[in-house]
Amino acid sequence: MKISARNALKGTIKSITKGPVNAEVAIDIGGGNVVTAMITSHSVENLALKEGKSVYAVVKASEVMVAVD
Predict the structure, then answer these.
(1) 3-class SS at 46?
(2) Which structural domain range is residue 41 located in?
(3) How many separate domains does the chain show?
(4) How far is the CA of 51 from the CAs of 16, 19, 25, 34, in angstroms?
């Protein structure tokens, strides 16, 4: 896999919660950390995603904000 995004986190699908249009995909990236992505239900089917499958969480953003209470 070649991709321009700098942040590609390898992990395993922990759960998929499907809705009528979108699906929430939780990816365990290790160390007790889980990244959650909201993607289309069509993409879940097209990528043949299922629990336990090895995937990459790819983060592409022009900026990252930091906040405190």
Answers:
(1) helix
(2) 7-57
(3) 1
(4) 7, 16, 9, 13
